[in-house]
Amino acid sequence: MESLVQFYENSLGSWMPREVFIFLVSMVPLVELRGGLVIAKLLDVGLLPANLICIIGNIVPIPFILLFIRRIFEFMKKHNILKKLVLKLEERAAKKSKGAERGEFIFLLTFVGIPIPGTGAWTGSLIASLFKYDIKKASLAIFLGIIMAAIIMDILSYGLLGLIIH
C-alpha cells in the first residue's frame, strides 16, 4: 500500500484530490475497500470520510458485475477474447464457493466481510452471478459484507496501524 501512496504523492497528488484516489482504489478488484482504507489512513483522511468514500467506491462496480458478468464472460469465451482468463476466473469462483449451496446469504456476507486475500465484493459478486443467486439477497449480503469489512479494516488501519503510523 505504501507504494500506491508514493505513486499518488509523486504523480497524481498535485492534481487529483486524495479522496478521489482512495475512491478509485476502492473500486479496483483485489484491493477494494480494504486497500482504500489503509491508503486513506496513510494519506491522513479522517475515519468517517474514508469510510464513506471507500464503501461507495467498493459498491459502485457490484451491480454491473451481478447483472452483466455472465453475459460478458459468455461473449468473451464465444469470441475467444481472453478465454483462458475467463475460464480461470470461473474456476476460481467455483473453488471459493464450495459449500455455499445452502446458506448463500451467510456465505456471501462472511466471504465479502472477512478481509483475507482472495475474498471481497468483486469475487463475491462474481460467485453470486455465476451461480445465479437471488440478486436482491446477494446485493444485501454483499453490502452488509462491505460494511463488516469496513469495521474490521477500521480497527486494523485506524486502530492498530494508527498506533504505528502516528
The helix-and-strand class reads mainly alpha
**Poorly predicted sequence stretches spanning 5 or more consecutive residues:** none
Structure summary, number of beta strands: 0
Principal-axis shape: globular
Largest sheet: none
β-strand percent reads under 5%
What's the number of domains? 2
Distance between the termini: 16 Å
Mean pLDDT, as a whole number? 90
Alpha plus pi helix count: 9
Helix-strand pattern, N to C?
HHHHHHHHH
Q: What is Rg?
A: 17 Å
In percent, how helical is the residue content? over 70%
Q: Helices and strands in order, then pairings?
A:
Layout: H1 2-12, H2 18-27, H3 32-42, H4 47-59, H5 62-78, H6 83-96, H7 104-113, H8 121-130, H9 135-165
Helix pairs in contact: 2-3, 2-4, 3-4, 3-9, 4-9, 5-6, 5-8, 6-8, 7-8, 7-9, 8-9
